[in-house]
């Protein structure tokens, strides 16, 4: 399958943004060893792609919310089919199908950006003054020569950490400078990639589903570590794209997660419900848990007779009794 359409699309976006910055008056020549018109073109390539993929990103968040809502049922299936992995997987797939939840939706935006990454990688890799196919993918000769000499702090954007001396000589670059700039950018790329995954996991929590948890661990640790090796073959312009994309993702995730906050987890709801149900009446213990002193039973006392009011005639207790007979 030919990927020329991707190369044409990436080239068109880059050239359009570069022409826009040139028209605004951004210097074409290097300032502080940097050709800002081309760096900004790569930056706004990220903005263009992320704006296009924003609806997909919102669907990703909603899918993750749906997966969270299914966690109690997933946990119940795990308890029911403990030790029977095959049956568990079948039951979980049936649950996802019934509830219209897609476990792989969380990775969809990243997968959709892979063609953009490959297109930019191929486009920047071609930027060599000795390349005779300068007008390929819609480039003019002047645009190609300008991009070939574009630099970031004197390091060509088409240079790589692993560039050979011959490649660096064709680009008119210093090998030490290229390695320093590329090395620093690779470390920043690894750090920002880790932070984007960590931000999402901290907001949504670790999944109960083993398959989902494995994907989360892969995104959190596996991908950043793999960049330590693969970053050496990426052109500096591609690393600039990746770092910019990560920074854009951090801001976008923060906004979306505030707008669509994760629902309270089922475990928390269950815990709070059970806590409310198991509340016992207060014990009759004393302060700080000490037992109260035993109560001594008191004897019943005769009712008190009210004293006569001042000035009242004394009551005659004999009044009303029959008189005694005298014999």
Oligomer: single chain
Low-confidence stretches: 266-293
What would you report as the Rg, rounded to the nearest angstrom? 39 Å
Number of helices: 11
Q: Write down how many β-strands occur, each being a DSSP E stretch of 2 or more residues.
A: 2
Classify the secondary structure makeup into a structural class: mainly alpha
Q: What descriptive keywords fit this protein?
A:
327 residues; mainly alpha; 11 helices; 2 strands; 61% helix; elongated
Structure described in brief:
By secondary structure, the chain is mainly alpha-helical.
Description:
With 327 residues, the protein is mainly alpha-helical. 61% of the residues lie in helices and 1% in strands. It has helices spanning 4-24, 36-69, 71-80, 85-99, 108-125, 141-148, 165-171, 175-204, 210-230, 236-259, 266-277, and strands at 151-152, 155-156. The protein has a two-stranded antiparallel ribbon with strand order 1-2.
What layout of secondary structure does this protein have?
Layout: H1 4-24, H2 36-69, H3 71-80, H4 85-99, H5 108-125, H6 141-148, E1 151-152, E2 155-156, H7 165-171, H8 175-204, H9 210-230, H10 236-259, H11 266-277
Antiparallel strand pairs: 1-2
Helix pairs in contact: 1-2, 1-5, 2-5, 2-10, 3-4, 5-10, 8-9, 8-10
């Amino acid at each position: 399958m030919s990927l020329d359409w991707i190369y044409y699309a990436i080239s068109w976006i880059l050239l359009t943004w570069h022409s826009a910055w040139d028209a605004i008056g951004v210097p074409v020549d290097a300032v502080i060893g940097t050709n800002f018109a081309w760096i900004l073109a790569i930056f706004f390539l990220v903005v263009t792609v992320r704006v296009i993929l924003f609806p997909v990103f919102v669907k990703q968040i909603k899918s993750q919310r749906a997966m969270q809502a299914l966690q109690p049922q997933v946990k119940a299936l795990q308890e029911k089919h403990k030790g029977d992995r095959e049956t568990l997987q079948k039951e979980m797939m049936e649950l996802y199908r019934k509830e219209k939840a897609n476990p792989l939706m969380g990775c969809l935006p990243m997968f959709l950006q892979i063609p953009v990454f490959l297109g930019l990688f191929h486009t920047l890799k071609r930027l060599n003054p000795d390349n005779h196919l300068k007008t390929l993918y819609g480039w003019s000769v002047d645009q190609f020569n300008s991009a070939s000499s574009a630099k970031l702090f004197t390091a060509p954007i088409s240079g790589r950490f692993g560039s050979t001396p011959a490649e660096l000589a064709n680009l008119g670059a210093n090998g030490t400078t290229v390695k320093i700039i590329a090395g620093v950018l690779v470390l920043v790329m690894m750090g920002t990639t880790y932070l984007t995954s960590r931000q999402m996991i901290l907001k949504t929590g670790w999944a109960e589903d083993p398959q989902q948890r494995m994907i989360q661990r892969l995104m959190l640790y596996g991908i950043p570590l793999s960049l330590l090796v693969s970053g050496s073959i990426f052109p500096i312009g591609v690393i600039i794209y990746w770092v910019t994309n990560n920074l854009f993702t951090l801001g976008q995730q923060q906004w979306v997660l505030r707008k669509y906050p994760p629902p309270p987890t089922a475990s928390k709801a269950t815990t709070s419900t059970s806590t409310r149900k198991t509340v016992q009446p207060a014990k009759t213990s004393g302060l700080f848990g000490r037992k109260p002193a035993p109560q001594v039973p008191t004897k019943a006392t005769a009712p008190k007779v009210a004293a006569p009011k001042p000035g009242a005639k004394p009551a005659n207790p004999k009044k009303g009794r029959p008189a005694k007979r005298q014999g």
